Structures are given as C-alpha cells and as structure tokens.
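User: Continuing from earlier, I have the next pair ready.

Assistant: Great, send them over.

User: Here they are, in order.

Assistant: Folding the first of the pair now:
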Amino acid sequence: MLLPRTGYPGNLSTGGIWSNGNGVGTLTSVPGYNLTVNATTIHIDDFNYLSTGGPYTLNARGLLETDDGDYIGLTGEGLLANTPHVQAILANETGVEPLKWGELNTFTTWTFQAAASSKYAALTESTFVANIRMSPSDNKNTSSYIDYRLSQVTSGPLCED
C-alpha cells in the first residue's frame, strides 16, 4: 500500500508536533494470498503525533473502494522511529535517500472492516502487521511517501508453562 502524505503540522503546548495528512494510494494483495484485493483509497485521514524526543505515533483511518465496487474500511496504528534518516525525509532535505525495507525496527497494526455479505468479509477477522518504507517527496504538495508491506497475523502453537 502506498500512501503519499500531505501534512497540516502544528505545535502542541506539550512540546510535541501533530499533523493530519490525507493519505492516497492503493491496496493490492500479493500473488498467492488467498484473497485477491485491488482497491484504491477514497479518503484516509493520517494523524501523526511526535512527542519531544520520542517516536511518531501513527493513526490512520480511511475507506477504500475495490475494483469490483465493494468498500473496505481500514485502521492502522503504531509507532515510527524518530531517526535522523526519518527526520531528513520529513524535512525534505536535498539528496536524502529513501529508507530501505527493514531499516526501521518499526511495525504498525492494521485492521479492516467490510460488509458481512462482501467477499472481503474475511479481512475483518484478521489483524495485519506492516513494515514501513519512507521516501522523500517529489512535489511541494506531499510531505513524504510511505509504503506499508502488510502481513497477516496467524495463530501458532499454544504456549506451554
């Protein structure tokens, strides 16, 4: 899923910074996944908060439309490490390279909402985790690009005492 972010930053009295971005992009399942998903965002609110010296808190909520006319709601939450590389991307510094997959030890969790009668209803029964890759913006109306690579969380063997 690719989400370019346009930010509305503001300073908080606590010393933190918040922004509300409008995420746009696509959600496409990988070959071999048991459900084919091809969807485009209708709207995603991407709220972010940075506490002084801490990580960014990510909170995204939105709506996708599939290529066959169904709608899927989504919610993503998690932390984004506040590294010098992330800061350089968000500051749109000249010559900064994109993050590599796995560069950040940061994951977000994602859940989906779909009608019970929809072929996408199975998405609502699972939780997904995502690794993040960020890229610098190539235009003045976008603060950064964020790719999320989602993986479904599945049950494993029970823990024993």
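And the other member of the pair:
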Amino acid sequence: LSRITVSSLIRDALTDSAYLHVAGMVLQAITSVRAHVHLARRSTNIGRATFEQRAGKPIAVSCTLTGETMYDFLAECVETVFPAIKEWKGIPGSSGDGSGNLGFGLRPETVAAFPEVAVNYDSYPPRMIPGVDVVVHTTATNDRDARLLLSGMGIPFYGKHVN
C-alpha cells in the first residue's frame, strides 16, 4: 500500500458551515489525521437558475493516510466497522480504476460505527455525520493484483471481478 485517501463531499456545507466542521471532526477522529478543506472550483449556473455553489466556497474535506496510520485505519475497518454492517457482502469486484487503486464508500450510519465516533456520539449531531469515500492506493499495476493484496489483508470482494 502506498496511501489511503478518505474524503467526504458535503453539499449542505454550502448553506450551513456546521456540516463542514462536523465532517472535519469526524474524519479527524476516525483517521487520526488533520482534515484538509477543499474549495469549490467553479460556480454552478444553469440558465437563469443560480445554485448555492460558488467558486471559493468550502465544499469537501479529505485526509491522506500514510505509514502506520494507514494500516491502523484499514485494520480498524476490517476488524470492527465492516462486521458491524448488516448484510454486508464486501467491496464490489468492479471497484477500481484499472491501475491498482480501489475505492469504496461508507454510509453515515457506517461511519457512526467507528469506535472513535461511537464513544463520543453525543458530540456529533446524527444528521450531520457524513458518508465517506475511501480510496486505497496500492503499488500494484492492475486491479487484480490490488484485490489479491487487499484480500490477504482481510477485505472481502463480491460479484464479477473486473480487471
């Protein structure tokens, strides 16, 4: 593994910055790494309709994990979070970008299953806990090798495996 990127797009942050603050605190709690805020690149206008999104407004948070924190996060997912998901089959075999990087998403109720969030559940308003996207960057050159590596670490895959 080379790194893991954990990110969350918070659309509600456009109207209320509290969503962004809670998302940053949750990401920092589950990854032990300070979250970085990302700004919108461009405004969204369609005809006469003007949406809330403006260039320069904060819209997402992300953390990049390397070294020991990367392995700790992955072990925590495999040992405590994934077993807590009801009827979870695993990660789709089609997830991947063709060059050895695999991604999966966690819903807000799954993020709440992390021990760091569950212990301080009262600190986070339940409706504000975000879902997260996790991308595992490997040194593998194709998705098949990356799936073999992650299978050896205890992550299950289901469905048709696409290479």
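Worth noting for the second one:
The radius of gyration is 17 Å. Residues 42 and 84 are 39 Å apart (CA to CA).
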